[in-house]
Design brief:
- The complex is a heterodimer of chains A (522) and B (373).
- With 522 residues, chain A is mainly α.
- Chain B has three domains: 108 residues, Orthogonal Bundle (Helix Hairpins), CATH 1.10.287; 145 residues, Cupredoxins -  blue copper proteins (Immunoglobulin-like, Sandwich), CATH 2.60.40; 103 residues, Orthogonal Bundle (Cytochrome Bc1 Complex, Chain D, domain 2), CATH 1.10.760.10.
- Helices cover 41% and strands 16% of the residues of chain B.
- In chain B, α6 crosses α10 and α10 crosses α11.
- The chains are: A mainly alpha (522), B alpha+beta (373).
- The structure holds protoporphyrin IX containing FE (HEM) and copper (II) ion.
- Copper (II) ion binds next to α9 of chain A.
Chain lengths: 522, 373
């Protein structure tokens, strides 16, 4: 043990093998975050192409089938390649530092959970150049449409399996780390909220990733081995797939947002210089959201023709989720109330998160009302809804977290002016991009169409302009991050005036191994 | 192009559009409702939106007040209060009560939406890749409804018409003020039948029959689109419904029946090559060209070419069989159920003697009939 500590105690090994073989939670966290950034930019380019095609009526730059491939890959890669790995990156970096653990519980498995991700990404990207092109069914993969595709449809199923395996391994690691490796004195109810939200998210992942794997495996056997799970002609039912998919899919949207709640709940108290208003109620609200998320899946299926009692049950259950979600929002606002507020970039993104996410919550409530959803289902209104919760929700929280912890990770301050530009450009262009889509949906524009009637032209054009500005603004973030890694003002151990928590007790940047002896938490 | 506008005009008219919601091109809400259901949905949405706006103003009013007044830069000192069970209970209970108030009218509306009993007219609607079939079960009238926007408009080679992508060759027709019950299903993949002005959207699922209903309260033409991604031409299978007075509706039915009787006469007829080729070209463009392309070249890797195809230049029987039954497990559907013998004969003849092929043989309705099981 002694020899081991001196051998590795000084820093990281050098060269490419450092990254291939590393079992260090900080290295793995860094790799997750870079992977997520790369995927974010790649899927973002696809979105630019989509918005370019939709800039005006008529088909201009691609075929309808290619358009569908782009929307599908954009969705799949953003969800599984960008947001989820970014959250896993935060988990890797922060959870051990926040609970006073030396590393994750299973460091080798940690290496694996990351390194199988690029394999899945390659399968997805490769499918674009195979005969027949990539999957063009939308990220929801509904059969029977899914039966009609070529080889890339099978590769996509394998990619989903790999992504699922990666998530499950990461979750096992996170749960074990949190439950077993907390510093003495850190009781569960003393854990930072970010740790709590990830603990709950990890349980959600373990519960639903196998369900998704099952659903796509049934697709695989229907496609290749003569089963008829989803084929009415063979006694199956295409709607069964939707039930199974959304039993995964709804918890999945909370998998994307709960860690975001956690990040924001760290940041708002810091820049309000005031403790979180209701710590315990935040924990309970997170847990209730997670539990409720298992019982509402068919609100994505209000138009499949469920019986009235089905519609009613899923409507009531979905509306109920608004209650704990509201509790969260009220708590963030109450935390800011009578604080001593400052607005550095992390706080700007956090406040942007709270206000924009809430708009997404409201439209979620509108969509939860089954009779109204009959009009909205599969329109641009839904597209607007989920981008408000995912872009100005999950993604803004990721931005906030990156700015918040970047000085800790790199030991340098980032360029505050550029950070603020990044925020304001993102915030404004985001709204120009997605707000008009509510109107488009209500006026009757379906989602997933490459061309549209003339009455939708103006709002689409505005939306596209917002999209291009939003896309370009993200280059700014890349510049800020690279600059910050390369140098800049030296960061203190306590980067932010009122930052609380164990991660701020170690130097910035932290040594390669932190908390080799556990700290004492009072 | 009539619809292109410079950027400043677009931005300026956005502001103007917000001020004048009546402007058609900046429509901010659902289209004017034309059924009782749509009206109720419209009203409920407006009402729910106002509740949301109210909550937003209260909550974010507080937040922006804090942002304004409780800043460090204006010298505000943080107060360290936190945890209050009373407050938590209040902000759990009030939203819950608001939700109950919202759920109650929604419950009544759902029950009404689901009540498809006692219809005056029943129409079976079948979704195909990428067109709709309407089957008036009580009257024996059945037809396909296909996008009629010319390709040139889609490819930006011609000025786009007012109903660009929202027009079909044969619209569905229903009587005004009568309860119309739809029985929906699909032939290949899932589609969804949606007309916003009627407030109805229902998935059409292969192998299952689902129902929905509407009673249109005003004569006119109403447009909608398929609302479930159904493959490459999902954006190109609109729905057009003409609501007519009872008398006009009856007249339309009679005309349709007469036409169907005439078509039935074709079944035993022997056509000339010119007749078959002309009819075949029409059938081809409406049914085959979306995948195999108007010139028969197909899309490599996705849809095979007709030009030079082994099947289209091989034995007649194989070719007719492909048209009738399709190729299971691929996007190629069987057209047997949708097209009559004369249409199949014509389109097969067209594929064998047009699109760069020249087998020289003709296919007659009788040949097709012989191969139907
Ligand atoms: C108050 C909370 C929320 C409610 C009541 C709600 C409700 C709904 C409903 C009813 C739909 C189905 C709309 C339709 O397809 O017709 C929907 C779609 C969606 N929601 Fe939410 N939602 C809420 C929050 C969230 C959050 C937090 C996320 C993610 C972070 C999210 C992500 C999505 C996504 C991705 C879809 C669309 C999925 C698809 O069809 O591709 N929602 N939501
Ligand atoms: Cu959901």
């Amino acid at each position: 043990m002694e020899a081991h500590a001196t051998e590795h105690g000084h820093g990281a090994p050098k060269g490419i093998t450092r990254w291939l073989t590393t079992t260090n939670h900080k290295d793995i966290g860094t790799m997750y975050l870079w992977f997520a950034a790369a995927m974010f930019l790649f899927a973002g380019l696809m979105a630019m192409a989509i918005r370019a095609e939709l800039f005006e009526p008529g088909m201009q730059i691609m075929s309808p089938d290619y358009f569908n491939q782009l929307t599908t890959l954009h969705g799949l890669i953003m969800v599984f390649g960008a947001i989820m790995p970014a959250m896993a990156g935060f988990a890797n970096w922060q959870i051990p530092m926040m609970i006073g653990a030396p590393d994750m519980a299973f460091p080798r498995m940690n290496n694996w959970s990351f390194w199988i991700l690029p394999a899945a990404a390659i399968l997805l990207v490769l499918s674009m150049v195979l005969p027949g092109g990539a999957v063009a069914t939308g990220w929801t993969l509904y059969p029977p449409l899914y039966m009609q595709g070529g080889i890339s449809y099978d590769l996509t199923i394998f990619a989903v399996h790999i992504l699922g395996a990666s998530s499950i391994m990461a979750s096992l690691n996170i749960i074990t780390t949190i439950l077993n490796m907390r510093a003495p004195g850190m009781t569960l109810m003393k854990m930072p909220l970010f740790v709590w939200t990830w603990l709950i998210t990890a349980f959600l992942l373990i519960a639903v990733m196998p369900v998704l794997a099952g659903a796509v495996t049934m697709l695989l056997t229907d496609r290749n081995f003569g089963t008829h799970f989803f084929d009415a002609a063979g006694g199956g039912d295409p709607v069964l797939f939707q039930h199974v998919f959304w039993f995964f899919g709804h918890p999945e949207v909370y998998i994307l947002i709960l860690p975001a709640f956690g990040i924001v709940s760290q940041i708002i108290p810091t820049f309000s210089r005031k403790p979180l208003f209701g710590y315990a109620s935040m924990v309970y609200a997170t847990a209730s959201i997670a539990i409720l998320s298992f019982f509402v899946w068919a609100h994505h299926m209000f138009t499949v023709g469920m019986p009235a009692v089905g519609q009613l049950y899923f409507m009531y259950a979905t509306m109920l989720i608004a209650v704990p979600t509201g509790v969260k929002v009220f708590n963030w606002v109450a935390t800011m109330w009578k604080g001593s507020l400052t607005f550095e970039t992390p706080m700007l993104f956090a406040v942007g998160f709270v206000s924009m996410f809430t708009i997404g919550g409201f439209t979620g409530l509108v969509l939860a009302m089954a009779p109204i959803d009959i009009q909205m289902q599969d329109t641009y209104y839904v597209v607007a809804h989920f981008h408000y919760v995912l872009v100005s929700g999950a993604l803004f929280a990721i931005f906030a977290g990156v700015y918040y912890w970047l000085p800790k990770w790199t030991g340098h301050m980032y360029n505050e002016t550029l950070g603020k530009w990044h925020f304001w450009l993102s915030m404004i262009s985001f709204n120009v991009l997605f707000f008009p889509q509510h109107f488009l949906g209500m006026a009757g524009m379906p989602r997933r169409i490459p061309d549209y009637a003339l009455q939708f032209a103006e709002f689409n054009q505005i939306s596209s302009i917002g999209g291009f500005v939003f896309g370009a603004s993200q280059i700014l973030m890349l510049i800020v991050i690279v600059q910050c890694i390369r140098g800049g003002k030296k960061a203190e151990a306590v980067v932010w005036e009122d930052a609380k928590g164990l991660e701020w007790t170690v130097p910035s940047p932290p040594p390669y191994h932190t908390f080799e002896t556990a700290p004492e938490v009072k | 192009m009539g619809h292109r506008r410079p950027l400043p005009v677009v931005l300026a008219s956005l502001l103007a559009g917000l001020a004048f919601p009546a402007l058609a091109d900046y429509q901010l809400n659902f289209p004017p409702p034309k059924t009782g259901l749509a009206q109720q949905i419209y009203d409920m949405n407006v009402w729910v939106m106002w509740i949301c706006v109210g909550i937003f103003v209260v909550v974010f009013g507080a937040m922006f007040y804090a942002i304004w007044k409780h800043r460090k830069s204006v010298g505000h000192k943080a107060e360290q209060f936190h945890e209050s069970t009373t407050v938590e209970i209040i902000w759990t209970t009030i939203p819950f009560l608001i939700l109950v108030a919202m759920a109650w009218p929604a419950t009544k509306l759902i029950i009404e939406q689901k009540d498809t009993s006692n219809p005056d007219v029943t129409v079976k609607v079948v979704g195909y890749q990428w067109k709709w079939e309407y089957d008036y079960l009580q009257d024996g009238v059945k037809f396909m409804s296909v996008l009629s926007t010319p390709r040139e408009q889609i490819e930006n080679k011609a000025e786009k018409g007012a109903n660009y992508l929202l027009e079909v060759d044969e619209p569905m027709v229903v009587p005004v003020g009568k309860k119309v019950r739809l029985l929906l299903t699909a032939n290949d993949v899932i589609h969804a039948w949606w007309v916003p002005a009627f407030g109805i959207k229902q998935d059409a699922i292969p192998g299952f029959v689902r129902d929905a209903w509407f009673t249109a309260n005003e004569v006119g033409t109403y447009r909608g689109q398929c609302a479930e991604l159904c493959g490459k031409d999902h954006g190109f299978m609109p729905i057009v419904v003409e609501v007519k007075s009872e008398a006009d509706y009856k007249a339309w039915l009679e005309a349709k029946k007469a036409k169907a009787a005439a078509a039935a006469g074709d079944a035993g007829k022997v056509f000339t090559q010119a007749e078959l080729m002309e009819r075949g070209a029409k059938v081809y463009n409406a049914n085959c060209a979306s995948c195999h392309l108007p010139d028969g070249k197909g899309i490599p890797g996705a849809f095979p070419a007709i030009t030079g195809s082994k099947i289209a230049t091989g034995a007649k029987e194989g070719h007719i069989g492909m048209a009738l039954i399709g190729k299971p497990g691929t996007a190629m559907p069987g057209f047997g159920p949708q097209l009559n013998d004369a249409d199949i004969a014509a389109v097969v003849t067209y594929q064998r003697n047009g699109l760069g092929n020249s087998t020289g043989d003709l296919v007659q309705p009788a040949d097709v009939k012989a191969l139907r099981k």
